Amino acid sequence: MNPPDDSARARMHGESPTRAARRRIRAADHRHHTAGLADSFVQANVCILPKAWADDFLLYCQRNPKPCPLLAVSDVGDPRLPALGQDIDIRSDVPAYCIFRDGELVDEMSDISGLWRDDLVTFALGCSFSFEWALLEAGIRLKHIERGESVSMYVTNVDTERAGRFHGKLVVSMRPLEPADAIRAIQVTSRFPRVHGAPVHLGSPSAIGIERLDQPYLGIGTTDVAPDELPVFWACGVTPHSAITAARPPLAITHKPGHMLITDLANASLASF
Amino acid sequence: MNPPDDSARARMHGESPTRAARRRIRAADHRHHTAGLADSFVQANVCILPKAWADDFLLYCQRNPKPCPLLAVSDVGDPRLPALGQDIDIRSDVPAYCIFRDGELVDEMSDISGLWRDDLVTFALGCSFSFEWALLEAGIRLKHIERGESVSMYVTNVDTERAGRFHGKLVVSMRPLEPADAIRAIQVTSRFPRVHGAPVHLGSPSAIGIERLDQPYLGIGTTDVAPDELPVFWACGVTPHSAITAARPPLAITHKPGHMLITDLANASLASF
Hints:
Two copies of one chain form a homodimer.
Chain A: H1 6-12, H2 17-26, E1 41-50, H3 51-63, E2 70-73, E3 97-101, E4 104-109, E5 120-125, H4 128-137, H5 143-147, E6 152-159, E7 169-177, H6 179-190, E8 201-202, E9 230-235, H7 238-247, E10 252-255, E11 261-266
């Protein structure tokens, strides 16, 4: 008989799968990406900024809700996010962090307790994993997931709404879908405005400044669109990261892409109707 | 001072605009199309069939809710439709009727009292005027309306679900929209399943068997799609007419295209959320 896996063991002990996943991450037992972990629960993008920059960033999120859908903002200096999980300690509960100084990536860490300061503010933002869960639940097949590839992302020529020092171009993710699935995907994701919501564009990539679909941002992802498919574009959580690096705050800490904060919110609970 | 128009006079007398419009139609004071009449209220497609054909047609509508969204079905032999308006008499309240015998158009009339029989059943089906109202309310511009043209319709290669003697290809209407408006239009019309609901297709016309956009059904309508637009296709209320003429019942009576039954239902009341 095989030993029970971690989530089965957690259930045997009455622990929720999300709390169990965070416990493993906190203990540095899980340092890799979080795709598929507790996958009916919301995973969040994380940005941590000094208070002197946080007010502008909060306004930036308010003005750009599609790429920057806020799930929770911490109190100043408080590493907890009780709205997303009573036990969350943002200093240890993300598998990998990126440390930016003056807009430059200078380090990666699996725990930021040593960097914590009384003036830091944590922003947790919705992530496309949640709407991809909703699409899969609705029976829509996603090519990049079936292939085990990343979704492809692109920098558009669409300006986000500036807020103080934060500004930049909208970054989008693209999923190729047949027309009937594209219509259904618009319906399904419209119900989830807190995790990017409905697409921002579909069809012609050049209409939003994307000249080549085969050259995505970071050079990774599924980029082929079949003749019977349309490229469908959603606002992407890389947009705030891009705005943060452009604004060059003295310190900014984010999750490492794909290495998300696991929350206690069920994806289904975010449906607006 | 100009004399008050009919709807102003109706309001002065405490009569609803829909009841006033029907009164004028019943008196044969209004024999032309109904576009723009009481335009925040639902207008309905009408099909009248003998009972011997009505059960199959009811099943056809049940199996094909996007082209044939039922608003109301009368009792056998009863010319009233109280669910749509207490005073409706279907024998006189449509400005113009088409009379089909064995599937052939044989006459047009402005009153069918002389043809009424104890075995006739009336079907009232949702119409695109209602979702176009919702699109305009949402600030989406519709090229054919701005030009005062008809919407263009096309016979697709998509089979409807057969029910007894009723069958045929899906007929669609097409509206050219920029991508962001297409996304918004999908959201808006999804809320109105009783008036055709969300589009059935967008993008490539040939994917649903439409070889030439410039050759619409009946040869009329706005057909030009700009380079920054997508053709967006909705299921169309011409589909049941097409199925009826194909089935060749000995008698079928429909409204004349564009000459609809005006009901007391507010368009807004049909929103499903």
